Amino acid sequence: MEFYQLEAFVSVAAERSFSRAAEQLYLSQPTVSAHIKSLEKELGTSLFDRGKTELKLTGAGSVLYRFAREMLALRLSAVDSIRDSSEIGEEALTVAASSVPCQYLLPRAIAAFKELHNRVNIKLTQKNSKETCEDVFNYHVPVGVVGEKIKRPHLEFAPLLEDELVVAVPHKQHYSELLAKESVSLNDLSGHKMLLREPGSGTRSHFESELVKANASTEMFQVTIFDNQETIKQAVRQGLGLTVISRYVVSDYLQFGILATRSITDLNLKRSFYLVSHSKRILSPASKALLDHLKTFPWED
């Protein structure tokens, strides 16, 4: 029993005419007749009393007519529900991100997304790159943004924008020699107090990997560990040491002359931020829309 047979049957029963049913369904009358005959053959009974005066339903036809209308209505309801589920409605999403994109980049992109889809509520949670990738891998969050690729099966990384790590220098007399230079070398920085993020931070990992390439390590500095970018900025501002930090993090302090920044000539401290997602995960309409939005957002504007 197929839906096209039931549609033909219900239409003939309602119109009490094969010809009028054919017009309504935009089919030929022989096609409609064939649908009814095949349905009667399948059920093993006549559905219509084809008398000389008027087309009437048989007892079996009356029973089928009631169920057929319900079945067609249920199909229509199912199709409508499926279409509704593919539309972006009210939904709560969580996006995990490492500290720099979470604090300094994503809020503007999320605000732009909310203007398009105001029924979607988005929570930002800050974790380091390793934790963020683990959350995406374990289906805890649909998408994440990281500064370091952590390899896990089925994780996909799409580059979002370029960043550069710089040395932040306080405007203090003790650092006058560094401030006098347009850029600094590792030798210039050797022995200085260096305020760094905790192990697992994308910023620290990139800095340390570039130090290794230059046959150096963090042992050449007096290292103090912090777990928060803003705390590091305030500590550097007060002259407690230097730090290697994203240019996005100190852009406001640089604009108002609170801190100075210098590039390190010995190291390539450019990096990318990546959008991480799980290739095997079926995303909700809102999650997919957010993923597409972040991929195309004008980050540099």
TrEMBL record:
Record-annotated HTH lysR-type domain positions: 1-58
Source species, domain of life: Bacteria
SUPFAM superfamilies in alphabetical order: Periplasmic binding protein-like II, Winged helix' DNA-binding domain
Keywords on record: DNA-binding, Transcription, Transcription regulation
Entries under PROSITE patterns matching the protein: HTH_LYSR
Keyword DNA-binding: yes
UniProt family annotation: Belongs to the LysR transcriptional regulatory family.
Matches recorded under NCBIfam families: LysR_Sec_metab
The protein's name: Transcriptional regulator, LysR family
Organism: Dethiobacter alkaliphilus AHT 1
